[in-house]
Amino acid sequence: MTTGWLGPGDEVDRYLTGAGLQVVHGSIRERERRGRTLSDVVGSVDAIVAGTEHIGREVFEAAPRLRVIGRTGVGHDNVDVVAATAHGVAVCPTPGVNRQSVAEHTMGLLLGLARGIPQNVASVRAGRWEQPSGRELAGATLGVVGLGAIGRLVAGLAQAFGMRVVAHDPAIDRAYAAEHDIGVRELPRLLNESDFVSLHLFLSPGTRHLLDANAFALMKPGAFVINTARGGIVDEDALADALASGRLGGAAMDTVGTEPLPPDSPLRSFDNVLVTAHIGAATEESRARSGLMAARSVLTVLRGGRAEHTVNPEYAMLRDRARPHGAARR
Fold first, then answer.
1. CATH, domain range 99-275
2. For residue range 296-323, what is the model confidence (pLDDT) as tens digits?
3. What is the pTM of this model?
4. Residue 166 and residue 187 in contact, taking contact as beta carbons nearer than 8 Å
5. Cα–Cα distance for residue pair 180/155, rounded to 1 Å
6. Where in the chain is CATH 3.40.50.720?
7. Of the N and C termini of the chain, which has fewer Cβ atoms inside 10 Å?
């Protein structure tokens, strides 16, 4: 297991060992301390319970017995799914387990931006007593980009604060939007009329740098951006330019293009930018659900079944073809 918040003796460990599996723990930080890569330690494993670290072709080539990756999180862009499929390895994320946690964190960032809460706490801690004006959420417009499970929860929480909600999603359920009083917008119009824009999308070639210089130019002067989805969706250089010019009122990022955020990132220089260390899903409740779902997927595949949330079901057709002669099976 490589997910950093899973460890010996926890519920996931007991679940897997109770099923007769030998469990080895090794987070990326532990391997870095020993100067080893993931490829160095997977030669004899049948399954990986993984977090956000990159799992590329080199890992699959180094793991002839590998049959399944249980990804503790809704996304799987850190896994080379094409390589996994070619090697007959199932990739099984854990959708739905973190939606409440991420939605609540999104609202926390939104409130922090609107009222400058982190900055004021830091000011008081430094001995000052400043009282700058913030923004009320009631009456403001929230643009939700990506009206999936998390986007819907964010929309509902925002409406509870009295916000007007509009949304953009190429696959939007218009009946759901109408029933929940959510306006449907094309992206340019959403950007133009929103006071706050919150991103809830998967990272794909079509969404990479969805918010770029052109997008920021369409936004209302003084608007705010919140990204709790994937860092690559925002062009961070263009974001820095929009902030430096005063076009935007601020931004909050739980995910950035390179994690950890590099010391020389221009985002570090702005007082009106909040960056958290990809903790949107980091609650005890969400992690418990995610770890157990990933473990159940692993066990299902190792026992010859098909896990419910498998992003590459065609892996099974290639499994025996990809497995080298004489490789161990379980």
1. 3.40.50.720
2. 999 999 999 999 999 999 998 887 665 5
3. 0.87
4. no
5. 9
6. 11-96+283-322, 99-275
7. C
